[in-house]
Amino acid sequence: MKKELITLQNISKSYDGQLVLDDLNLFIRENEFLTLLGPSGCGKTTTLRILGGFETPDSGKVIFDGSDITTLPPNKRQLNTVFQKYALFVHMTIAENIAFGLKIKKKSASYIKDKIKYALKLVNLEGYENRMPDSLSGGQQQRIAIARAIVNEPKVLLLDEPLGALDLKLRQDMQYELIRLKNELGITFIYVTHDQEEALTMSDTIVVMNQGYIQQIGTPEKIYNEPENAFVADFIGDSNIIASTMVRDELVEILGARFACVDKGFGENAPVDVVIRPEDVELVAENTGTIEGVVSHIIFKGVHYEMEVMANGFEWLVHSTKMFPVGTKVGIKVDPYNIQIMNKPVSEDEEASTVNE
Questions:
Q1: What pLDDT is stored for residue 172 in this prediction?
Q2: Does residue 92 contact residue 114 with C-beta atoms inside 8 Å?
Q3: Three-class SS state of 26
């Protein structure tokens, strides 16, 4: 079990009377790649800024390696931040940019030279010492920003949407670079993004946030396959979310038809929400499914077909490698293990504050 390195205790923060974080509690382990994921305004960047020392919470504590650092300034913390805007000094060479923090710490010239060489090798930009930032691509500039952060040997690297300005191919390349760096450096990465694919690709742990609350914490697999509520299910990937009735343990009624499932403990004839991922919907020949429907729309996505099937008054989203033309009558089957049952929130506040730690 990895050691707990950072604890956020009862953190609240408001701006102009607007509550951005509401009694947030979170712990982060040593050498973990943890991603704060959520839509704009959910509080993820504010959480990162509080960790970095750029904001002070209205209430609550930030504990780092057993010490309270809530009021400690950024330059006194064993953390470094990489921003979306790389913030490279345009009038300095790459070597001077990387050396900036080390010079402030009054490190020796030989130490700084060795560190520059080490950092550039780590980010695959050896030989770039004398280049200027404006001669580099966006991806290269981002790697220099990361190199500048890691030469200071932080225990934690904070990354605030660092790939947001890159094109898709560069972004994907940098995702693999960050995973490699995290594994090689053995430091804790705390990453902020609104991009679900980034979070699923890179993270050990994902923290899904909405409206200042943590919605769910878990591994990428757990978050995707077992969402705790409709917000998480809808935000992470595509989903069919259907208001249903839990007839009894291991039996749910969806759109008037009864499906076997594996969930228990929801009571009898209880209102629930059901989540079924598009890739888990099986289309079969007419009159052989649990529900019958008609294909209403189809798009070819390369690795699969994305189809919409109107069945029992609901438009099902289906991903399949098998194509069914528009107008085809089909049956719908779902494996019991692929039906995720969720409690229905009784209010908007309950929906926003749902969390399973």
A1: 81
A2: no
A3: strand
- Among 2-6, 243-247, 335-339, the range scoring the smallest mean pLDDT is 2-6
Instruction: Write down the pLDDT at residue 84.
Output: 67
Cβ-based burial of 245 (10 A; exposed 0-12, middle 13-18, buried ≥19): middle
Q: In what order do the strands lie in the sheet with 18-29?
A: 18-29, 4-15, 59-64, 67-68
CA distances from residue 5 to 2, 96, 141, 226 in whole angstroms, order as listed: 9, 32, 30, 27
Domain spans of the chain? 4-225, 282-333
Q: How far apart are CA 275 and CA 292, in angstroms?
A: 19
- pLDDT at residue 347 tops 50: no
The CA-based diameter of the chain, rounded to the nearest angstrom, is 78
Q: Is it the case that residue 260 has pLDDT exceeding 90?
A: yes
pTM of the model: 0.83
Overall average pLDDT of the 224-229 stretch:
90
Query: Of 200, 206, 135, 192, nearest to 164 (Cα)?
Result: 192
Residue found by looking up tokens 């989540």 in the block: 275
Task: Tell me what percent of the chain is helix, strand and coil, each rounded to the nearest 5.
Answer: 30, 35, 35
pLDDT band at residue 356 using 50, 70 and 90 as cut-offs: very low
Distance CA 126, CA 45 (A): 32
For residues 135, 137, 139 and 141, what is the CA-based torsion angle, rounded to 10 degrees?
Answer: 20
| Pairing state between β 205-210 and 188-193 | unpaired
How does residue 105 score in pLDDT terms, banded at 50, 70 and 90?
Answer: confident
Q: Which two tokens stand for residue 56?
A: 């002070």
pLDDT recorded at residue 165: 67
22-48: per-residue pLDDT in tens? 999 999 999 999 999 999 889 999 999
Quickly name the fold that domain 282-333 has: OB fold (Dihydrolipoamide Acetyltransferase, E2P) (2.40.50)
Q: Look at the domain 4-225 and name its fold.
A: Rossmann fold (3.40.50)
Cα 261 to Cα 335: distance, rounded to the nearest angstrom: 8
Which residues contact residue 118 at a Cβ distance below 8 angstroms, ignoring those fewer than 6 apart? 151
